Amino acid sequence: MDRKTLEGRFEAGLFASRWLMAPMYLGLVVSLGMLMVIFLRDLAYYVPQVMSMTAEEVILVCLTLIDLTLAANLLLIVIFSGYENFVSKFDFDAGQDRPDWMGKVDFGGLKMKLVASIVAISGIHLLKRFMEIGESVAAAKFGETELFWLVVIHLTFVVSGVLLAVMDWLQAKSYASK
Q1: CB-based contacts of 33-38 (< 8 A; 24+ apart in sequence)
Q2: Which of the four pLDDT bands, split at 50, 70 and 90, describes residue 29?
Q3: 78 contacts 115 by C-beta, under 8 angstroms
Q4: Cα 130 to Cα 97: distance, rounded to the nearest angstrom
Q5: What is the gyration radius of the CA atoms in the chain, in angstroms?
Q6: pTM for the complete prediction?
Q7: CB within 8 A of 114, min separation 6: which ones?
Q8: Where do the domains of the chain lie?
Q9: Cα distances (angstroms) measured from residue 81 to each of 63, 94, 125
């Protein structure tokens, strides 16, 4: 076997290895189902209690449900964009139901959507913790130290997102100047 044939088979094998990612995306679909179960469980738990809840409690429940929804949106973005970017293009006609962003989110766009979702989820989690402060000192789950670190972690996510956006902007600018 000559070198060219060997190289061609090796490269074809490397290219086919992308399919090893498919079970990982299937695992993310299972994770999406897990989030749905938790969402429905929380909804079923809180709906019967709504008449006895304070406005602040209802807001905390809503923030929890929004948090779960944002995490599910994040999973969908990773599943669809990751599969299309790294494994294979979807080759079925979804018609009008196909989201506009599908097939258009490259790795840089995926990275920015991930960071933006993580910042939003972190912000909602932080807001929930701050709303719990007003309840009672005994009922508060987090002390000053824990809240401080939640703010530091959130700000770390925000700064990381800004730095990633600046790096993408600089990279795009360098490609445009060539």
Answers
A1: 35/68, 35/71, 35/72, 35/75, 36/72, 38/68
A2: very high
A3: no
A4: 38
A5: 22
A6: 0.72
A7: 74, 77, 78
A8: 3-176
A9: 26, 15, 26
95: left (phi over 0), alpha (psi -120 to 50) or beta: left
3-state secondary structure of 23: helix
For 74, the token pair is 């994040």
Residues whose CB is less than 8 angstroms from the CB of residue 64 and which lie 6 or more positions away in sequence, other chains included? 42, 128
- The pLDDT value recorded for residue 144 is 77
What does the DSSP assignment read for 50-100? GGG--HHHHHHHHHHHHHHHHHHHHHHHHHHHHHHHHT----S--GGGS-T
Q: HSE of 171 in the Cβ direction (CA atoms, 13 Å)?
A: 8
- Measure the CA–CA gap between 178 and 157, rounded to whole angstroms: 32
Give CA–CA dist 13/11, Å, rounded.
Answer: 5
Which residues are CB-contacts of 25 (< 8 A; sequence separation ≥ 6)? 79, 82, 83, 87
134: amino acid identity, one letter: G
Amino acid at 170: L
Q: Can you read off the two tokens belonging to residue 96?
A: 């009008």
